[in-house]
Amino acid sequence: MNEGTPLALRRELTALRLPTLSRHVSTLFRATAFTLCVLGSARADLVLVQKVEGGGQSGEQTIRIKERKSRADLASTLSLITDGATGDAYTLKHSDRTFMKIPAAQSQAMLEELKKKRGEAPPPELKTTGKKEKVGEYECEIFKCDLGGMAVTYWIAKDYPDFAAIQKQLSVVQSGALALSSQGLMPDPATFPGMTMKTVIELNGKKVTTTTTSVQETAVADTLFEIPRGYKETPTPELQFVPK
């Protein structure tokens, strides 16, 4: 699992012996975790551009949302498509024109196993630091959250223009049984008091910073959420839970 996921999840995924699947799921969580933290009815299509720094993940990622589907372009060689209606996810490797499907049932099985091993720990909550800082042109209030050994800091803009409407659109793709918040593994985005403009995730002395640089309501083509013609499917490794 990547630096954007609680330590307990990282540890348990390692025990699952999923070298290929965990790598793809890790990238999927990295692409979507910040979107889910930013926080119905569908509005105009949404495009978010984010800058990622640290942890070997430096670069720009673009996330496009249309109704209950989302697509994250992490680099010129990798894209991820998620279907909020079915819970299925697809990774596209443009370099060799292949794709892998991660069925909702498989993701749910993995999350259930992680949730079981996590025990009865209460869901993580945001805690205000009482500090404020500007991110871009927006004044943000700083919050912290402890995710089982991993510290996450959020810069949240309470006065972000039209945030309530944007929240509705984002909630369409972060809802459902597979959402990390519904599993009690991440804070519930519905409790966030504004738009998350920046996060800093600290784990084992390393930091990963994600900053939103642009949010636009603009038309997104339906074809972006389809598997490109000529791409060949690669098999998804079978989950093998290893008892401790």
Task: Explain this structure.
The protein has helices at residues 7-15, 19-38, 104-118, 163-174; strands spanning 46-53, 59-66, 69-75, 78-83, 89-93, 98-102, 127-135, 138-146, 151-157, 195-203, 206-217, 232-233. It has 244 residues and is of the alpha+beta class. Helix content is 23%, strand content 36%. Residues 1-42 have low confidence and may be disordered. Helix 1 (7-15) crosses helix 3. A twelve-stranded mixed beta sheet has the order 7-8-9-10-11-1-2-3-4-5-6-12. It is built from four helices and twelve strands.
Enumerate the spans where pLDDT stays under 50 for 5 or more consecutive residues.
Answer: 1-42
The 3D shape can be described as: globular
| SS field, number of helical segments | 4
Helical content band: 10-25%
Q: Which structural class matches the secondary elements?
A: alpha+beta
Tally of strands: 12
| Widest beta sheet: strand line-up | 7-8-9-10-11-1-2-3-4-5-6-12
Beta-strand share of residues:
35-45%
Question: What is the succession of H and E elements?
Answer: HHEEEEEEHEEEHEEE
For the structure shown, list the relevant keywords.
single chain; alpha+beta; disordered N terminus; 244 residues
Secondary-structure blueprint:
Blueprint: H1 7-15, H2 19-38, E1 46-53, E2 59-66, E3 69-75, E4 78-83, E5 89-93, E6 98-102, H3 104-118, E7 127-135, E8 138-146, E9 151-157, H4 163-174, E10 195-203, E11 206-217, E12 232-233
Parallel strand pairs: 6-12
Antiparallel strand pairs: 1-2, 1-11, 2-3, 3-4, 4-5, 5-6, 7-8, 8-9, 9-10, 10-11
Helix pairs in contact: 1-3
